[in-house]
Amino acid sequence: MGETVLSRALIGHDGMIKKLGLVLAGSIIVAIAAQFSIGWPVPMSLQGLAVLIIGFTYGSKLASATLVTYLAYGAMGLPVFSNGRALEALAGPQSWTAGFLYGFVMMAFIAGLAADRGLTRNVLAMSLVGIVASLLLYVPGLLWPALLLGVEWADLWTKWMLPFLLGDTIKAVVAAMIVWGGWKAVTNRSA
Question: CB neighbours of 180 closer than 8 A, spacing ≥ 6?
């Protein structure tokens, strides 16, 4: 099996209808995942997990299109962001997490690039890519509140990043294990 992207190996990407179906399904999955939080001492939404799975499963182009579609839902006023938020999460004084939302497109692209290059058949490589993509998400995620909302850098580190690093690492490993399991199922099915 020479395919590097799991969704192509399962159903193919030939045809606009399949691509559109994958984008719609993926964007809805991310919207649903955004409504669920787990963890302690700070609750973390499952959005990042869903974004990594979409990236690892779809490849860079389709994953990016999926996350742009997700952002478009919120821009249209649909309550797809965490806690049922919509447009106010993308712009304005209540948009403290907008940098993370915009950064999800980059995160999906990075995870998708790993899939395009065939790294999603190795759980360790995929976990490392997921961790790097999760860390890079903090660049737009922290720049937005620092530059546009005036949040102090010390607060960003102690309240916006540090408490989430362990959870982000766990989500990256879980995403890698899920997609790796998908590859194992495809390999066993075709054997």
Answer: 120, 121, 122, 123, 126
Nearest to 115 by CA among 82, 71, 80, 66: 66
Please, what is the angle between helix 16-33 and helix 60-75, to 10°?
A: 60
How many other CB atoms are there within 10 angstroms of residue 36's CB atom?
14
The sign of the CA dihedral 145, 149, 154, 155 is negative
Q: What is the pLDDT of residue 140?
A: 97
For residues 46 and 15, what is the distance between their CA atoms, to the nearest angstrom?
30
Tell the residue number behind the tokens 């054997």, with chain if given. 191
> According to the model, what pLDDT value does residue 191 have?
65
Question: Letter for the amino acid at 103?
Answer: G
CA-nearest of 64, 171, 47 to 115 is 64
Measured at the alpha carbon of residue 85, what is the angle toward residues 82 and 86, in degrees to the nearest 5? 125
CA distance 146 to 156: 8
Per-residue model confidence as pLDDT tens digits over 6-21: 999 888 778 899 999 9
